């Protein structure tokens, strides 16, 4: 796992489990664990994760906004898919190296009834449709993901 991915995962854990009201507090928590991060990097991480500042009874707090993070992820998906192929029963999505699991997770989270599930390797995702009659529409959906946001 890359240093950035580890940092992003740790930020998500901290935001979900602790009351964090400022960048400075989070920077200090990360540094105490051995993760050095600048304010600028933290701001970019927040944007990528979809972190927003919410007003609570205890005061302002940074939280993960699933709607915002979904938009950010959707923007990246198109850059990570290289091509889409299919036969009469399956769809194969080729991705950048190491990105197949992220793409598969995104496809699974679309919660489309036309998709039974996905199987991911390093740079290949196998999309299993619920019926061969859905192949064409699913290929179109995945190709659309390559050029714009999908929700």
How far apart are the termini? 27 Å
Counted up, domains total: 2
Task: Report the β-strand fraction as a percent range.
Answer: 15-25%
What is the mean pLDDT? Answer: 87
How do the strands of the widest beta sheet line up side by side? 3-4-6-5
Coarse morphology: elongated
Task: Report the CATH topology name of the largest domain.
Answer: Gyrase A, domain 2
- Element-by-element helix/strand order: HHHEEHEEHEEH
CATH class of the largest domain: Alpha Beta
Q: What is the CA-atom radius of gyration, in angstroms?
A: 18 Å
Q: Count up the helices.
A: 6
Main pleated sheet: 4 strands, antiparallel
Low-pLDDT ranges = none
**Structural class based on helices, strands and sheet pairing:** alpha+beta
What is the count of β-strands? 6
**CATH A-level architecture of the largest domain:** 2-Layer Sandwich
Helix content estimate: 40-55%
Task: Provide structural commentary.
The chain has 2 domains: 62 residues, Winged helix-like DNA-binding domain superfamily/Winged helix DNA-binding domain (Arc Repressor Mutant, subunit A), CATH 1.10.10; 72 residues, Gyrase A, domain 2. The chain has 6 helices and 6 strands. Strands 3-4-6-5 form a 4-stranded antiparallel sheet. Strands 1-2 form a two-stranded antiparallel ribbon. Helix 4 crosses helix 6. The longest helix is centred in the first third of the chain and has 15 residues. The model has no long low-confidence stretch (mean pLDDT 87).
